[in-house]
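protien #1 (seq + structre)
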Amino acid sequence: MTAGGLVTPPGPGSGGPDRGAQRERTRLAWRRTTLTFTVAAGLAVRSAFEGSVAIGAVAAGAVVLVWIAFLVVAHRRVRELTELPVVGAAGGRLRSAALWTLALTALGVVLLR
């Protein structure tokens, strides 16, 4: 929308997206991602014990450690979105979450062999 040549950002009264809901959507996305990560970790632990018990125990332990690290990162981000005033994207937390996701993926590939 323009007013005298100036572009006004969408707001609650302008019919555009509500900026206040963005934090809630992001928080819910982190919750969904955590749930998905938990399911993937559970499946990895289950498949870890299909072969040797000793190797399965080590692999399952590694998966659980990666899962706990991801939960810590996700919980901190969700708490930031709930408690603090408007925050920009937490680059460190996002990179950390991506790292733990790649670690779980690598463990899954190892377990499939």
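ok now protien #2
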Amino acid sequence: MAEEDITGIIKRSLVAGSIAGCSVDLSLYPIDTIKTRLQQKKSLTRGFLFSSLYSGVGSVLIGSGPSSALFFTAYNLSKQTIQFSSQWQTHMTAATLGEICACLIRVPVEVVKQRAQVNRNLSLLTITRSCFQNEGLFGLYRGYFATVTREIPFSIIQFPLWELFKEYWSTKQGYPVAPWQGALCGSISGGIAASITTPLDVAKTRIMLAHHSDIDAASNSFTVMKNIVKNEGFTAGVLPRTMWISIGGLIYFGAFEYVTSLFFSKKT
């Protein structure tokens, strides 16, 4: 592949991915806060569930853009450089590599964000300092493997479906999909992926929110899921998560497709 092509892919992925990540996370942050609070172990009052819904939003402002940009960079480069006989396999592999890279930024952001969402009186700086004092750097990466365990199945469902739906729509109408059509494809594929992977999301949230002395803090996703199934089932947060991802897919992929078509369609 020519150097210019690689440069174009990187520029498009960084710019469009960053804008897409910030757009969806900021606009739907209150729903994410409700989902996180529903998934924690503590019993909730209605007043707490719907109060201070933007607690911890500063962490998203810092990390959402870079993590999304890193994902799309790895995803798009992988699609071009790793080719299988099946496009489905290529897209799944690219999504997997994209998530592994993106989680290097996403996990510390998630740890701080989710603790702020359930401890609304604590500042982001206080939460970050507490992580370092009690657990060291590992504290900010607690739940990394749980997050990757959740994100990889989610992405290998969502992104191949997104690509498939776009290809089908494009073939049916005889020309490439418009940004709004790509956004709708992303919304549908995201909703499907979200409903299937909610159990992994619940486990990831419990690990990140657990006190460092709690058994869940050192547990893996499968152990936590087993305990949740035994005691509670997997209904916690399923509706907010599915709604959040479905609407979020519309915004996320819509922003990505729009920025790509607006600034890069003639260059790449």
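The two ends are 13 Å apart (CA to CA).
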